[in-house]
Every structure is written in C-alpha cells, then in structure tokens.
Amino acid sequence: MSTDRTEVLTAPPLAAAADPVPDAGPRPRRDGSGTGRVRLVLAHVGIVLAAALFALPLVYAFFSALKPNNEMFSMPPTLVGSEVRWSNFADVFAYGPFATYIGNSFFVAVAGTLVVLAVSTTAGYAFGRLRWKGRDVVFVLFLVTLMVPQEVLVVPMFIVMQWFGWVDSYQSLIFPFAFTAFGTFLMRQFFRGIPFELDEAARVDGAGPFRTFWQIILPLATSAVAVLAVFTFMAFWNSYLWPLITVVDYQSHGTLPIGLATFSGQNGTRWDLQMAAAIISMVPTTIIVIALQKHLVKGIATAGLGGR
Amino acid sequence: MTTTSTAGTRRSSRSRLSRVESRQALGFMSPALVGLALFTIVPVGLSIVMSLFHWPAFGERSFAGLGNYVALFTQNPDFWPALRNSAVFALLYVPLNLVVALSLALALGPRIRGRAAFRVLFFIPVVTPIVANALVWKMLLQPQGLFNGISVSVFGVELPNFLADQNWAMVMVVVMSVWQGMGYNMLIFSAALEQLPAPVVEAARIDGAQGWRMLRSVVLPMLSPSIFFATVMTVITALQVFAQPQLLTGGGPGNSTLPLVQFIYNQGFKFQDLGLAAAAAWVLFVLIIGLTAFQFRAQKRWVHYEH
C-alpha cells in the first residue's frame, strides 16, 4: 500500500509542477455582454468582502498591539486606542528574554534547514541517480516512515533525548525531526527528472560521484532545493509541540512559539505585549511568502506533501 | 525502475560499476540512514515497548502487558471524550476546510484583479506561527473581545462566552483552524485549476455546459485527484490537532475540546505517565493509518485519473 499511496499522493502535484500551463482554467464568456460585466464586478465585491473578513483578525491584532493594555477590551471596541503605543514593540523585549527566543528560533530553523538539505539531497541522489542493490526496498522503508506522524514520535523521542543527555538543548531542537523522509523523497523525485546522460558524460570526463553530485546535479536542482528550504525553515520556525516538550529552561533554549505563551502569567495576561510579540513572530514567514508569491502556487505543487 | 539509459554497456563492466556505485551510494545514504534509525525507527520500537510498561517519568518501571491499553479504554475518564473530540473536530474541520478552500480557489479565477495578492493573503495564516494565530483568536473571542464587542455595541445582542461554552468552544476551535489552515488547500486547488486541460473545458463549453453544470460535470471530476490528495492530508492534520485547542480552551471547558494529541501530551508530560501516553499514541497512529487506507480503498468510487 505504501508505494501506491505515495504514487497517488504526489501524482497530481508533481505533474502540475512539471508542465505549467498558465490560466487554462474555465474562463467566463468573453462576449462583453452586460451580464458578464456585472458578474465580474460582483465576483470582485464578494472576494474583497471575504478577504476583508479573513484579514480582520490580523489587522485587529496589529492595532491591538499598539493599545495600552487596559484598553484591549474596551466597550464598544475601538481599532485605535487613546494613544498609539509603538513602545509596546520595544517593551516586549524588556518583559522577558524575547530576544533570546527570536535568536534561538532563527538559529534552530537555519541549522535544522541546513541539516535537512544536506541529508535530503545526498540521500535523494543515492535513491534517484545511483544503482545499488536493495535500493527499492530501502526506499519503500523510507516511505513507510513518512506515515509516522510527529505526534506519535514525541513520547519515545523524549526518552531518546534522555539517553543522549539532550533534553533542553539545541541538539534536541534541531536533530530529531530533521531526518524525516519527506525531503529525501522530494529530492529523489526531482533528481530523477534530470537527464541521465549528464552523469555518464561527467564520468567519462573523470568526475567521481561526489563531484557529479555537487557540480552537476545539485546546481540543476536549485528550485527543488529552494522549495524544500523554505518549507523546512517555516516548519522549524512554527514548531510548537516538540519544543514545548523538550525545552525546560526557557531563558536559555526557549523558542518563539513557546515564548509567546509566557505573556500570560499569574498576574493576568499582558495582552498588549502578547499581541505585539505575536505580530513580530509573524513577520519573517510573512515576508518569505510575499517575496516568493510568484512561485507560491508552483512551490506548493512541487512540495505537495510538505511543510506541515 | 529505470537504470541509466546508455545502451550497449557490457554486462561485466555494469556489475563492476554497480558494485562501485553501491559503495558510493552507501556513502551518500549514511547520514539519512543513521538519522532515520536513531530518530524514527528506534523511537517507534521504543514506543511499542513503552506502551507495554508502567513508565513514569521518574521512578520504577514495571511490565504492564496490555494494561495501559485496557486502562485507556475502560478506566481513563478522558480517553473516550478525547477520541470523540478528535472525531467531532475532524468531521467539522475537514469538510469546512475543503469547501472554503475550493470555493476560494474557484472564485479567484484568471479574470480577478490582484488574484496573486489575494492568494498570498489567504495563505499567510498557514505560515505564521500557529501559536500566534491562536493567541490572536483567543483575544478576539474573549467575552470583552472584538466579536462580542461588535455584537453588543452594534446589535445589542450578547453573544455566548465562546471559549467557556460547552458547545461553542469546539465550534470556535474549528472556525479558527479553518481560518488558519485552509489556505494550503486553496493553493493546491489553484494549482490544479491552472492545469485543467483547456481543450476539454472548451469542448464542454461548446456543448453548452456552464455555471453549476460545468462545475459539477467537468471541473470537479477533473479536480478529483487533487481533492482526494487534499482530503487525505487534511484528515491527517485534523487528527493531529493540538495547538489550537491547547491555547484557545486548554481542552475545556471540562474536557469538551480535548483532542487525542493533547490527551497524549497531558498524560505523558503533565501527569508523567509515559506508558499510557505511548499506548494512546499507538491508538492515534492506528486511526490515522486506518482512515488513510480506507480513503485509498474508497477512491475508486469517485477519483478520476487521466490515463
């Protein structure tokens, strides 16, 4: 069942990535008639309304982050408080070790992404472009492990971390979930689409497999590597359950997501700072998505399974 | 599986080559193999063992046989509610997510101005930290929050205390989760819509299909592989839900929004009963595998693949 599953799961997205035909979807009739016009205007109105409703929580959160704390829940609600407190964004850093959380999150996400890229590209190369005994059996084993969700692994993983003496450490934040088969699978699929004559030519020229991999194949796979990097970075940046379990001392190893919850304590919640902190935590991934918006649809189609 | 395409390679040199390649492949594979062994295979094996033991976080372990599983299904007061909550969440979340995502993907057609910007907007909550998203919604859903505030000041209607109400709490966890997660499926569907073969759509249009009929008889069947993919993935994520209820309601009121993953987390890391948590994790795993397998069986009835 496992091979069958992956086959079908990736079939539509990968096929979609391979052959982009822009905007071949159903078009409204272009007869220029009045009803077509009206429909298009209505469609725009509907979408703008939906988008406004959808954006409301984020917009309101942003303005709430600028209010004094005692005006967070004023009746009737207001968008802007009696004063606009940009200082809330600075106070976030004075309230707790928020700079540490940000630094840790960046470090863990970048390091984790590098590990994932190194592991996935090399293993993907072995599966996709080298011939060796037992390759297909091992590959199926890899795919089977794709089906084990993180939620099932966290309990025993905590014990493994105890064995390693890694509880409450950077290692425990970086390594345990950096070896999932997804990246390997993605890279293998991509590598297989590159003409095999290239390897032969490189071999004739006397290049060993590592040089072939590093200088010929990998440069041709930058788009897939980029997709994997972006999704991996975001997954690490947003990761919550595992840091919640493995981090004991927030002062030293806390990451942003678990740090965000620290604004509610015994003395009530500092909603103003919590909202400011939440907005700050949203900035990096939002920038990535906006910067890559042209590639968004294609990237999702390529990654298919990924990112969650 | 294809091997290299160079024709005429002699057999002897091929086998020597493949022996060399096997060695090289092992070099390329070793980081992934070691990592997979340490961080997937060992934990999976360990979790089977753990589920058969009384395994407190601190103190003596003792063999329990199937005791943990028996305790889950017959004694633990939270396990059945957690199963029920996960089921209710999935039953509400999956269809709502898919319908909203598909509607938006269809609505954002090629003639919509700024469709790329709209897509980005709808996708943003997918990539922002789920903790941040949940805390924003927690603020909005407070009794003094924006939703009730607008309702009282504009309509004079007091809304229920959403997060403290037995029935509303789950509804709001679902609503927040759809808001946060559906952008992913929307992009999956958008990608698929852009791939629809133009000639087929054109032919259907010439045959007089339009509007609802075009959608039902032409577009949806051609999208069915993507809908299937999205359904499978969304069911899995629904069963993995944790952060939203944990942050919005803490699983409450009572245990009315406590899903299976939060049950596992609580048993293992709040009540320090790791054996019971491992057993519950296996129940979750079996559920996920079972539901996925079932969907693959059932797909023949409604998924159309191009041949």
UniProtKB/TrEMBL annotation, chain A:
Compositional bias (Low complexity): 11-24
Membrane topology: Multi-pass membrane protein
Transmembrane domains' residue ranges: 40-63, 106-127, 139-164, 170-191, 212-237, 273-292
Domain of life, per lineage: Bacteria
Segments for region (Disordered): 1-32
Gene Ontology CC: plasma membrane
Subcellular location: Cell membrane
Ranges where the ABC transmembrane type-1 domain occurs: 102-292
SUPFAM superfamilies assigned: MetI-like
Keywords, alphabetical: Cell membrane, Membrane, Sugar transport, Transmembrane, Transmembrane helix, Transport
GO biological process, one term: transmembrane transport
Similarity comment: family membership: Belongs to the binding-protein-dependent transport system permease family.
Protein known as: Multiple sugar transport system permease protein
Naturally occurring in which organism (per UniProt): Krasilnikoviella flava
TrEMBL record, chain B:
CDD domains: TM_PBP2
Entry keyword set: Cell membrane, Membrane, Sugar transport, Transmembrane, Transmembrane helix, Transport
Positions of transmembrane segments: 25-53, 87-108, 120-140, 168-193, 214-243, 274-294
PROSITE patterns linked: ABC_TM1 (PS50928)
Subcellular locations according to the entry: Cell membrane
Membrane topology: Multi-pass membrane protein
GO biological processes: transmembrane transport
InterPro entries: ABC_transporter_permease, MetI-like, MetI-like_sf
Domain of life: Bacteria
Annotated Gene Ontology cellular component terms: plasma membrane
Protein family membership: Belongs to the binding-protein-dependent transport system permease family.
Protein name, entry field: Multiple sugar transport system permease protein
Originating species: Krasilnikoviella flava
Taxon lineage: Bacteria, Bacillati, Actinomycetota, Actinomycetes, Micrococcales
